[in-house]
Design a protein that fits this description.
4 copies of one chain form a homotetramer. By secondary structure, chain A is of the alpha/beta class. Chain A contains 11 helices and 14 strands. In chain A, α3 runs parallel beside α4.
């Protein structure tokens, strides 16, 4: 931590900060500049509140040097984290990028879901996604079929061999969702629902954590740290667009540079959801390709058997036919990436 | 709802949209322009998903005309909502603006809390605020004293006659918090925790709903609608700063124009929290004054008996001495506002 | 400047940074932490490119400690800058806050402009504002009457005794505008038109510099520094709203906390333009009051003799009648502020 | 244009709007809804100020239906615009994506520039870029070598056969820059310097227009419209990152979805500048690949012969050696895109 003192602050203030730091077990190194004094505090940041120092007399600014998360950081794990599911599917590192496919909300028409799942399986996808509990901005919008939806998902997953991903919105629902899902999703709006994150940290299910619409990368990794530090080491990150000043033509702004940035900072797998990020069907293919080539470990996309009549997010869902075409194009790119990854694995080995 | 068709789309697509609308009980009025057709859909917006229409062939854009919330809107209540607490304190409308004062987190030192409460009471404040459950960005930061803190708050509230405001973070904790608090706060990070909002809608305690850091005004009022539409009509809104591209000198950007905007759109009381909005102690006084003169129904501010050693947010907390000075200045302004409000009440009566 | 090295970077990289700094005349102080080395570079920041250091091997981050502007900073001038115009009007410091009033664009109807000017004078305003060269987002919108408008403004200014403020958009037009205006305005879109800023630095007219819609406070003060460092010490800052994710109910987000922040960082006067910030007529009064009470040295607002037929920005312009009412209310507040300022002046003297 | 009236506004207000529209040559179609009246105004939007209508009594909101630019839109040109330079290089449409390479600023060391240019040519790039006039946030940063730099660029361009791209910051400098450059660049900070845009509209040189850091896509295309509507039909757009709330790890947020969005709205070529967008060297390769696969017509990137000692933006510049490696990888992808484009051209022909 670096503490910058106000120009011309008096010696007494400086000594007060030094004492404060030493009391907390820090070593304080003073740098007398021409204009101001800068104090380097050496020790474990997590033992201290930077704001507490900030409030001491004569302190201009406190700058954090070390990233505040630990288990989520590259220092937390030497190697990229790769999770292997019971059916052999892997996610992360140099494994083949995965595809998660399904409707925004699971609806009453089970056959529709089955049709999507069958097409997904046939096209080589690994996961079936679908909402049972739906976080909707308006209380008057469709809120999800809850347990019925979970049963449908499990049934369609078992029938096709796809793994099931679905969202949980409340700590109370974790046991129920865990009975049906292979991966539990935390939605963007709940990224800082810390009670939920802690409770999922006690779970043994992998957690797919979506980036909040206004979460910085640091806040995103700190949210992951909540899960990791409570004991669950299987966290999959998901970039799904951030809020910006322009939402005329896309719902959010997909922050694709976050993929290589997060891969540099963290060992956790990260996937991209172009459907929610853009809110536009025609952008799913180009943004999926861009995400994959930028290094994403997978893509989550919305596919519906009848988008015109979807309960939610029809405009950003692909029809099954459209999905087949998009997926065919993505599979070509995924094949090339898998090939390059294999070469790189060989290099690492030798 | 207005449906704008793509230029030169064929008649068939237009008829499909018309049929779709009519099936949902809407009346469709066509406007043939030189370049494109615009369809006005007349009916209850809440019966239809705009995205569903958006996904129909040939549709360029769907524009919502009516605000999507109802109970929170001016149409939902003819008069400004004013809530009266059992001790006679009122909030909203043309009542005297209120002050909510206390530490960010309640800490082990009960006497410290009592000192703050006593000063608050003496200066004419109405509410004691303090965190028992703390939503912290990092899992390594102080997470709150939970029930101990609730007991302290109640005790200090009872001793001074102040009403108690404290945050709940999880549906499971609502009964516990309700046992101690007069007002239940929903933090900015939970503004779209819809399960929590619904559960609070079933509660009979007034809810203080903070605006999410990236919530639009529309999303903010829709979050209030979740509580209102579940039966709890006592919602107090709180503006506490939004995220912007500049956080060098203030933590967030305080959106003060939201006060008159929301007062135009809604009948609900709205207060301002300049402590969280700016994160800087020296900004509390000018921003509180600005908020009050812009029409806020109250101010929530952080005061700590020993900010240098606060468990959280010391840099934005006033010491008791500073608070007395700030409050003295605010009270002058509040007195003038109360006087003007009385004149206005007389006018309305006559 | 603080240079944070990567954890476990080798000694050679550290020595390279030290050498680089010493070659540029800096003193380098090393702080060996448990995890990483932090180098404090002491010297004149302006002799070095932080990016250059950032690009050296093993450097994780370069943190600027001192604000990069100098003449605009509190270190640049001990006292608040107050400018006195030939007619005795003063702006800045503890002087009575000023009002700048007029139409967005000057139009063909000279009498309309005269009516606005006469009302402004009568209500105690000091400045007449109006656009001769208009920066419009669309090339098909009205672009301004240019020299004709300048003549009108001068004539109306002379007739009423108001000072004239008008915008210049291009270095080529500075001589022409200088012939007519008392204050030259730089619009938000030109805040980083550095050629224009430099040329105005050579002018002897006071410059009203508007904050860019996405300019940080630091960038804003650096833009002022361009003018100051080229020799013109009369810069008036103007906050006029920044872009945020929500523009449904206001055109921009008025950043009122920037007023006390900038007054802390800089000695320059700062005013607020609520008309452009909000784009809504009904918000001018509450936001003007909030700005004044937060410490603004003046308000610039749009008034038009016939807003329904204005060439630009009618929706945010007050009619003359509305203006009289708003101004009456503002004058009460200004009177109180003037009184408080006088007390403070006395205190400073004694 | 759609005019939404306030609920329960009286008939008189509605008739006033209708009359106003008809006076301006519009046809007004009324839709009487249950709650409010919506008026569809049919005619040429550019003849009217939406704000003017907005300011009429009883009007709640004016919604623009048609995009306000015309020449830049798909309606402005049936086919993708492709520009062919005298040396046969093409940009736009289904042509091979181009690469623009060079230092941020041209410096005194001509040989360094030549080394970059020679490497660029050898790797198959088409353009040499470099700054002669530098828009710098601080007046104390390097401001560019001006005409000397222009001469160097021309000389290096002629020696290698590369086309020269360089920025102009002021209308006064257009003739000078035109003497040396093949493409004139407008920087992000000048995107709404309308005088400059108009003057470039009279030029016969292709203009590379960078998106402003807080410009919406609509504002971006309107800026292009300024150039196009003044007679210059050769505009190349460039996405270079927008401001967001997170700048800890990247300078700006690269908005890659803007590529397919703009290609849908406009016929103009669009390239991407990952160097300025991210400000980080290691992000250039992944973001260039992502941009190309998302459909960009080219990439502009910063390469410096000695980044550690660059006058500006060293941290985001590739060394010549790094550039060769990155370019080798990009060329593979460009080859594949060229192949796919050829297939598509064949399809279009047949």
């Amino acid at each position: 931590m670096i503490i910058v003192m106000e120009p011309k602050t008096d010696e007494q203030n400086i000594q007060r900060v030094v004492k404060y730091l030493e009391n907390k077990g820090f070593k304080a190194v003073l740098n007398h500049g021409d204009v101001m004094v800068v104090i380097a505090a050496i020790g474990d940041k997590r033992l201290i509140q930077p704001e507490a120092i900030n409030s001491l007399e004569g302190v201009r600014e406190v700058k954090i040097i070390q990233e505040p998360y630990k288990l989520a950081s590259r220092e937390g794990s030497l190697h990229d984290s790769v999770y292997t599911f019971p059916n052999g599917v892997k996610i992360g590192g140099l494994e083949r990028p995965v595809l998660m496919v399904g409707p925004c909300s699971v609806e009453k028409d089970f056959q529709g879901l089955m049709d999507v799942a069958a097409a997904a399986k046939e096209m080589g996808c690994q996961f079936l996604r679908g909402g049972a509990f739906k976080p909707r901005t308006s209380p008057y919008d469709f809120q999800g079929l809850e347990e019925v939806a979970l049963k449908y998902l499990r049934k369609a997953g078992d029938a096709t061999g796809l793994l099931v991903v679905t969202e949980v919105m409340d700590t109370l629902d974790i046991p129920l969702v865990s009975d049906y899902a292979d991966v539990i999703q935390v939605g963007a709006r709940n990224m800082q629902n810390f009670k939920l994150l802690k409770a999922l940290g006690k779970s043994n299910k992998p957690v797919l954590l979506k980036r909040g619409a206004s979460a910085t990368i640091r806040e995103f990794l700190l949210a992951a740290e909540y899960i990791l530090s409570n004991g669950n080491e299987k966290v999959i990150l998901c970039e799904r667009g951030i809020k910006s000043f322009d939402s005329s033509f896309t719902r959010n702004t997909l922050d694709l540079a976050s993929i290589p940035v997060i891969k540099k900072l963290s060992h956790l797998p990260i996937i991209v959801d172009p459907s929610h990020a853009t809110g536009r069907r025609y952008l799913i293919e180009p943004m999926s390709k861009a995400a994959l080539i930028a290094g994403a470990h997978g893509i989550m996309m919305e596919v519906h058997h009848d988008p015109d009549n979807a309960s939610s997010d029809g405009a950003q869902s692909l029809s099954i036919e459209q999905f087949r075409q998009v997926c065919k194009n993505l599979n070509k790119l995924i094949g090339r990436i898998e090939y390059d990854n294999k070469l790189q694995k060989e290099l690492v080995k030798n």
